């Protein structure tokens, strides 16, 4: 029996800008997948992180 597993990784990074315009390629990645632009934001009586896709 042969088991094949495919794993894909996403590039996730953080700063205070809601865009990918500052992304620089590294480690074989040419574009990001998701970016956190605000962390620990209080909304509707809970803490959330704001992300840009």
TrEMBL record:
Keyword terms, alphabetized: Hydrolase
UniProt KW Hydrolase keyword: yes
A single GO BP: signal transduction
Recorded GO MF terms: hydrolase activity
Highest taxon above the source species: Eukaryota
PANTHER family: LYSOZYME PROTEIN, LYSOZYME-RELATED
Protein name, per record: Glycosyl hydrolase family 25 protein
Organism: Hexamita inflata
């Amino acid at each position: 029996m042969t088991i094949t597993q495919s794993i894909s990784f996403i590039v996730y990074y953080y700063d205070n800008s809601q865009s990918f315009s500052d992304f620089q390629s590294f480690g074989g990645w040419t574009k990001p997948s998701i970016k956190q632009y605000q962390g620990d934001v209080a909304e509707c009586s809970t803490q959330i992180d704001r992300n840009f896709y």
